[in-house]
Design brief:
Layout (H helix, E strand, L loop, with lengths): L1 H29 L1 H36 L1 H17 L5 H11 L3 H11 L5 H11 L4 H12 L5 H20 L19 H16 L3 H35 L7 H10 L7 H9 L1 H10 L5 H14 L1 H11 L8 H22 L19 H29 L3 E2 L15 E2 L4
Antiparallel strand pairs: 1-2
Length: about 425
């Protein structure tokens, strides 16, 4: 009976998907000019921002994996990542690169980890849940300065975004707890630095590619992945434009506006929510332009849209993890949870007194120059990696101590609990 129901659901999903794409194709024939304009805008975003920003990090991650550096980090940071997020130490590399480079850098690295058996299926899904973050320049430059016209707002948006990501990671540490740890075990006695170096050497010997071939493969694989990402950006830019031309979005607004009114937000931001559901840039821009709503409400919606990241990023992640056994359903749940928590943190950071509305400074697109993007991303990468390494070293040091409990009640012998501390 259950199998029959599943077959019916699959058929229904197939028919619906086929109908939607047929409608999209027909709409492009009806609105060719609008579709072409949207495609050019999406291609410009990819060529001017995404490609030059992500390409160095994609190549860097491939080379570091081939050289075994990631395995070194995995051994060293196991005492931090395992107790806090219940993932192997190599997850710190995906976290650092994701925080520095933004979407979908973390998914690319996590998929690579799964293919190399550096994490289990459940651990990979936990990594995808909380390492999927926006890059800092997007929040500080494009959103705070370019869209809202106030650089100081970038601090609020970024803090809420990253705190929400870590909160999702801590929540997902309980996901799939019954599964055993991955085969990459690092809880062994001995000098941790020596073991990390041995693991690095072992990984390099197993890879065994000459450095020239390693670089060539890194460039080739990175370009291939980025071209796929560019296709998704163009596709969803066209999709959003077509939906706007067909005025389909307005049928979704009444329900969204009702929900916003229930939670105490301005219903005028319903359009931003609907557009942000499909594409992150369009949604945050719409939230910034809704001048009739209070600035606090606009920031909350913008934070939620950035955390959700849109169907465009979801499509990119799905394509990147294709060929692995990682499931996309936990990732979608994590994105929804991230959006809710990011909005809540933004509200708390703004305070209970709502910021008054008013005229927003002229909205302008600002993504930063190439040098500025690389400088900020590399700085954040070094800072985050350094902090994680320091935290891992401290936890490793503290794990060597034992807690001793003494019972000082008269007439009773002192008792000792021979238990090691648990680092959380």
């Amino acid at each position: 009976m259950m199998g029959r129901i599943e077959r019916v659901e699959r058929k229904g999903l197939l028919y619906f998907t086929a109908f939607c794409f047929a409608l999209l194709t027909l709409s492009l024939a009806i609105y060719p000019k609008e579709g072409l304009t949207a495609a050019k805008e999406g291609l410009a975003i990819f060529g001017e921002v995404v490609l030059p920003s992500l390409l160095p990090f994609f190549i860097l991650s491939e080379v570091l994996l081939g050289l075994g550096v990631v395995h070194f980090i995995g051994v060293f940071l196991e005492p931090l990542m395992r107790p806090v997020f219940n993932v192997p130490g190599v997850g710190a590399f995906a976290l650092s690169m994701g925080l520095a480079a933004g979407y979908p850098m973390d998914a690319v690295i996590t998929a690579k980890f799964r293919r190399l058996k550096l994490c289990s299926k459940t651990e990979g899904e936990r990594l995808l849940a909380f390492t999927n973050t926006a890059d800092p320049l997007f929040m500080f430059g494009a959103v705070a300065v370019g869209m809202f016209g106030d650089p100081e707002l970038g601090v609020t948006i970024a803090i809420a975004h990253y705190l929400a990501a870590f909160s999702v990671g801590f929540i997902f540490r309980f996901y799939g707890r019954e599964e055993r740890l991955s085969t990459v075990e690092t809880r062994k006695e001995g000098n941790i630095i020596q073991r990390a170096l041995q693991e690095m050497l072992k990984a390099r010997q197993e890879d065994n590619r000459p450095f020239g071939q390693l670089m060539a493969d890194a460039v080739k694989d990175s370009i291939s992945t980025l071209l796929m990402i560019g296709g998704f950006i163009v596709l969803f830019a066209v999709l959003c434009q077509v939906l706007e031309e067909l005025r389909i979005l307005r049928y979704l607004l009444p329900g969204i506006e009702g929900v916003l009114k229930i939670v105490g937000l301005d219903p005028a931001l319903g359009t931003a929510v609907v557009k942000g559901f499909f594409e992150i840039d369009i949604g945050t821009m719409e939230a910034a332009k809704t001048a009739t709503a209070a600035l606090g409400d606009r920031l909350i919606i913008a934070s939620a849209v950035i955390a959700w990241s849109g169907l465009s990023v979801l499509g990119q992640v799905m394509s990147v993890i294709h060929g692995t056994d990682l499931r996309v359903r936990p990732f979608i749940i994590a994105r929804l949870l991230h959006a809710v928590i990011a909005g809540a943190y933004t509200y708390l950071l703004l305070g209970t007194v709502r910021i008054a509305g008013g005229t927003v400074p002229a909205v302008r697109r600002m993504t930063g120059g190439l040098f500025q993007r690389w400088s900020l991303a590399l700085t954040q990468l070094l800072v985050i990696t350094g902090l994680l390494l320091a935290a891992g070293f401290i936890l490793r040091f503290l794990s060597r101590f034992r807690l001793v409990w003494r019972n000082k009640e008269p007439g009773k012998r002192e008792e000792k609990a021979d238990r090691k501390t648990t680092c959380l």
